[in-house]
Amino acid sequence: MKRLFKLALAALVATAVLPGTGHAQNWRLHTLVKDPHPYNEAARHIIGELDKVGIKVKLFPSGTLGNDPTVFDEMRLGTVDVMISSSNNAAKHVPELQVFSLAYLWPGYEAFTAATGADGPMLKRFQALFEQKNLGIKLLGIGSGGSRNMSNGVKAVETVADIQGMKMRVPPSPVMLQVWEALGTQPVSVAWTELYAAIQTGVAQALESSIAGYTGSKLYEVAPYLALTQHEIQAGHVSVSQRSFDKLNDEQKAAVIKAGAEAAQIMTETAVADEEKLLETLKKDHGVTVTKPKIAGFQEKVEPLHESLARDMGATDLLKTAREVGKAHM
């Protein structure tokens, strides 16, 4: 009996991971969304790349590990290892991320990518902010989950006048609340995982989201009127728990950094490639009414807010950078 115990103990010691050696890691990766979605495509790239260096990553999509604020805290503890999610849901910890919620900030994806890609000035600035704020979370990349558009269960939207007084679901972002107030709606804050029921029961009448998020969560069933307001290029962040990262060896750390940067790029590429396909599917297979409203009326109401909102969130420098990059890519 003693001999069997000693053999079992020896086997356990042989396979154990000593702190800092970076072998045989088992990680959990959180997203809030269901397929098809660019965040989940980015997640699958990370899973494949990290498997090569002995990090086994399991994807938990659709908020199965909790809502973003909860997961953000879990990341700081190292009980969740990686998250890919919308930047506005991290605004509580990094208020400057709300700069991406300034409606009609970018002339197009090219400008967004130039500012936030691997060598982009805004990515570098946010990586420094994550570190300065001592969050316990390392920012690996910023990509896009697609353009954000408005949908509702009431009527087709052709102009900004059509949305006046609508109960509008917004994420937990003070900037987005002010943007949609300026557009004449009545904002209500509802968690993404509770959004379908909120629209179904009338807690909210309208929402804004990426086309992928709208499709994957079947929101077309309760909000079949989709208006291509394209008010925002949705920014998503790819982040890793600092505690989890610090346990890795140098080879694994390099792989995580590389995979995260690539995942952000894949996220954006997937979003751009899939939007038109998803729109066709929504119209043909799900009976969604798609309109292209007159954007000028929306822009006139929100663009004058940019400077004051950026100042309130401490992101005047980031707004300036976004404008400079935008002008260079118009």
Topology readout:
Blueprint: H1 2-15, E1 25-30, H2 38-51, E2 55-60, H3 68-77, E3 82-86, H4 109-116, H5 121-132, E4 137-152, E5 167-170, H6 174-182, E6 186-189, H7 195-201, E7 206-210, H8 211-216, E8 225-241, H9 242-246, H10 250-286, E9 289-291, H11 295-302, H12 306-312, H13 316-328
Parallel strand pairs: 1-2, 1-3, 5-6, 8-9
Antiparallel strand pairs: 3-8, 4-7, 4-8
Helix pairs in contact: 2-10, 4-13, 12-13
**What kind of sheet is the major sheet?**
7 strands, mixed
The ordered H/E elements are HEHEHEHHEEHEHEHEHHEHHH
Mean pLDDT: 92
- Uncertain stretches of 5 or more adjacent residues: 1-22
Strand content: 15-25%
Q: How many helices?
A: 13
Helix content: 40-55%
Q: Sum up the overall morphology in one term.
A: globular
Span between termini: 76 Å
Tell how many strands the DSSP assignment holds: 9
Alpha-carbon Rg, integer: 21 Å
Structural class: alpha/beta
List keywords for this structure.
330 residues; alpha/beta; 7-stranded mixed β-sheet; two-stranded parallel ribbon; 13 helices; 9 strands; disordered N terminus
